[in-house]
């Protein structure tokens, strides 16, 4: 089953369970808060550990790909040359930023808006997203970097095939020619 569909199923299931939890009871609310904080500490700890493992491996294999063009940014896309180490660190950094943003949003929703159910749901979803994270699968779970885990990672789509950077030789050669033509002008 596709990751996006799994997220929807888990969210809907967690919402049904959360409806039955008596959040009016301060003791239960504190347990849910502790559970949320614990899950976020685990998530952040795992991401920092993955960063440490990436730096420890120090894989300097060159990685070339043509980044997908973003319709909102005319400067996006083009040839990207990096190392496996730098690519994995940037992907882990994106995961960390997403976790920090989620924590900030939950803090706002819970402390300012007084919502309690999302604490329970996001604790579960955060752990599921941790398990789905590709750098975690490679560096922590020891899965080989092939198939879906082949770098550069392709973004999973709920509606069809995964999209992402192009790694075929023809696309890379074409991007290199474009760079050469721009330098001549």
Shape: elongated
Total helical elements: 6
**In which order are the strands of the major sheet placed?**
1-2
Termini gap? 49 Å
Structural class: mainly alpha
Largest sheet entry: 2 strands, antiparallel
Give the uncertain stretches in residue-range form.
Answer: none
Instruction: Return the average pLDDT rounded to an integer.
Output: 88
List keywords for this structure.
185 residues, two-stranded antiparallel sheet, 6 helices, 2 strands
Please tell me about this protein's structure.
The chain contains six helices and two strands. It has 185 residues and is mainly alpha-helical. Strands 1-2 form a two-stranded antiparallel sheet. The protein starts with a helix and ends with a helix.
């Amino acid at each position: 089953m596709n990751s996006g569909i799994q997220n929807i199923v888990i969210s809907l299931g967690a919402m049904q369970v959360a409806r039955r939890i008596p959040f009016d009871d301060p003791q239960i609310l504190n347990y849910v808060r502790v559970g949320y904080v614990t899950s976020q500490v685990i998530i952040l700890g795992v991401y920092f550990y993955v960063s440490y493992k990436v730096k420890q491996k120090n894989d300097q294999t060159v990685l070339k790909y043509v980044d997908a063009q973003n319709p909102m940014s005319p400067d996006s896309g083009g040839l990207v040359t990096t190392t496996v180490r730098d690519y994995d660190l940037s992907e882990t950094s994106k995961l960390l930023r997403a976790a920090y943003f989620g924590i900030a949003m939950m803090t706002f929703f819970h402390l300012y808006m007084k919502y309690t159910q999302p604490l329970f749901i996001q604790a579960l979803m955060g752990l599921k997203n941790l398990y789905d994270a590709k750098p975690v699968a490679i560096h922590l779970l020891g899965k080989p970097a092939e198939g879906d885990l082949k770098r550069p990672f392709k973004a999973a789509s709920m509606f069809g095939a995964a999209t992402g950077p192009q790694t075929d030789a023809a696309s890379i050669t074409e991007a290199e020619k474009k760079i050469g033509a721009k330098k001549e002008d």
